[in-house]
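Journal club side-thread
Mid-discussion, someone asked how the predicted structure for our own chain would compare to the paper's figures. Pasting it here so we can look after the session.
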Amino acid sequence: MRMARAVVGIGLLGLLSAPAALAAPACAAPLAVARALFEAGTSARFLDTPDALLAPGFARVIAAERDCQQREQGICRLDHDPWLDGQDGEVDAEPGYRWRAQSPAAGTVEVRFPVWGEPHLTRLAMRRQADGCWRLEDLVTHRGQSMRALLARPLP
């Protein structure tokens, strides 16, 4: 009888902790978020990056650019792929990731990958949000262009 209770107790404990364990990998580590961002950004348009990966302020400027491009049926501020830092290119190999913490709640993930044989370095400014999740505050391209600054500019 004691053994049955112990097994049931362990089973219930496992069920209760499962949602937290399953949710944790999605946003608990900056490198996991960086990998998800890279996969999302290279398989679709940068402007279609899921909001769950973005800090609220960055999500707003991306949504505003996306809305502007739909409204204008063309380019507003962003005329290139930030990951490629150009309009054309192809990622030739798997990226490498390196975390550089600036504080317990902020840091940068350096993403290194080749584009048509040339090394590229993209920096992802990350911040831990109030819910404990790490999210992207800014993407700085290989040439040093801040996407947040670019997308926050007034239209010409």
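Post-session note: Residues 73 and 107 are 36 Å apart (CA to CA).
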